[in-house]
Amino acid sequence: MNKVVRKIPLRQNKSDFAYWQTRPYAERLAALEEIRQEYHRWKYGVQPRFQRVYRVIKRK
User: Fold this and answer.
1) CB under 8 Å to 20, separation ≥6 — which residues?
2) What distance in Å separates the CA atoms of residue 41 and residue 37, rounded to the nearest whole number?
3) Is pLDDT of 48 > 70?
4) What is the pLDDT of residues 5-43, one digit of tens each?
5) CA-to-CA distance for 9 and 13, rounded, in angstroms?
6) What's the rounded Cα separation, in Å, for the pair 44 and 23?
7) Distance between the two ends of the chain, CA-based, in angstroms?
8) What does the CA dihedral 17, 20, 21, 27 come to, rounded to 10 degrees?
9) What's the whole-model pTM score?
């Protein structure tokens, strides 16, 4: 098995943006959600959850 290596100038390198523009909307959104979840696990060590919000309302 031979290794194959290609050297190209940085200016000719295709961007990730061009790749993701070819993917369907649902696939892009799923990838974004996966990245978000990985970030929260790395940063906080837990799965993110909704915060509880309470309001105290004074009635007359």
Assistant:
1) 28, 31
2) 6
3) no
4) 888 887 777 778 888 899 999 999 999 999 988 888 888
5) 7
6) 30
7) 82
8) -150
9) 0.53
